[in-house]
Design brief:
Elements lengths: L20 E7 L6 H11 L4 E6 L6 H11 L3 E5 L6 H14 L4 E4 L11 H9 L4 E5 L6 E3 L3 H18 L11 E4 H7 L10 H12 L4 E5 L1 E3 L10 H16 L29 E2 L6
Parallel strand pairs: 1-2, 1-4, 2-3, 5-8, 6-9
Antiparallel strand pairs: 4-7, 5-7, 8-10
Helix pairs in contact: 5-8, 7-8
The structure holds guanosine-5'-diphosphate (GDP) and magnesium ion.
């Protein structure tokens, strides 16, 4: 599914050289943001590895990323030949991190929308045994700042549609701020994930829920970017709409009401009990 060979250049660590936590940062034209994003991440989680996955950004983001990797420790860059979509970028980044021994894999945007200061709380939840921890804008305590009403409506509508059709049991299936355990990603089998664009987030959530893995949502504050522009497009939105609809028609969905709370088919058993302040997913709460 991920057609480009991984760029295991001289920056690549030897097997098992990456730290247990690897933060994957996908970039396309983020020259104004990538350095600040890495610095904030480093301050928030000093021991984490940072893997930038750049799609040959015309604005030179990849060059800046190479410089950051050369100057700092625990930073690597995966160069892809051209803009291939967020889902494909994450797929390659995750495969690389898994192959190099990562135990927890973090998704975060490069544009400053996701505050790295929230990451320790997400990681704590993952270490407690939750295989997919979603930084959620749409649970109590979560917020979205700086979005136009139509952008917010699009996100909320998309989430409501996906949640209803696919019985996801989560409120923010499109969030791009999350933590996966390595065992979850191995179970999900990345090679079977087909989404190219942002729909990747929904497909991964569906795969985790359908596998019966523990999933939970931790409230986050999302702030719209200050620099650069969004890569969200009609094509990306339509891919999501089409995929959610066809997955439903194909019978792919989470547990029905009667099945909620029963152990899923995966080795992880029923969803973990929510910690205070957390919201458990794969439940029927609205
Ligand atoms: N490597 C790569 N990164 C991408 C691609 N599309 C978006 N991104 C990155 O994904 C993150 C989220 O994208 P953004 O445009 O901010 O989406 P929005 O927050 O929904 O408006 C940013 O870090 C982007 O640079 C892509 O095709 N390839
Ligand atoms: Mg953004």
């Amino acid at each position: 599914m991920f057609p480009h060979p991984l760029d295991l250049s001289e920056q690549s660590p030897t097997a098992h050289a990456v730290p247990p936590v690897v933060v994957i940062v996908p970039t396309y034209n983020e020259a104004e943001n990538i350095q600040a994003a890495c610095e904030r991440l480093r301050r928030a989680v000093p021991t984490a590895g940072i893997l930038i996955v750049d799609d040959n950004s015309p604005d030179g983001t990849g060059v800046i990323a190479d410089r950051l990797a050369a100057e700092g420790s625990l930073t690597w860059v995966l160069h892809r030949p051209g803009k291939g979509g967020l889902g494909r970028a994450y797929g390659e980044g995750m495969t690389w991190a898994l192959d190099h021994g990562a135990r927890f894999l973090v998704e975060i945007d490069a544009d400053g929308s996701h505050d790295p200061a929230a990451l320790p709380a997400l990681l704590d939840e993952a270490r407690r045994g939750t295989d997919l921890v979603i930084g959620s804008r749409y649970v109590p305590g979560g917020t979205t700042r700086g979005w136009s009403p139509w952008r917010l409506a699009l996100s909320r509508l998309g989430n409501t549609y996906a949640r209803a059709l696919l019985r996801l049991g989560v409120h923010d299936a499109t969030s791009g701020y999350r933590v996966y355990s390595a065992r979850a990603l191995r179970q999900i089998q990345l090679a079977t994930v087909s989404s190219r664009g942002y729909c990747f987030q929904i497909e991964m959530t569906l795969a985790a829920v359908a596998a019966g893995l523990p999933v939970s949502e931790v409230p986050i504050e999302f702030t719209e970017r200050q620099h650069g522009s969004s890569k969200m497009s009609w094509a990306v939105g339509l891919e999501a709409l089409w995929n959610v609809t066809r997955w439903r028609l194909a019978g792919r969905s989470g547990p029905s009401r009667g099945e909620v709370g029963r152990p899923g088919p995966g080795p992880c058993g029923p969803p973990a009990a929510p910690a205070p302040g957390r919201r458990a997913a794969a439940t029927t709460d609205a």
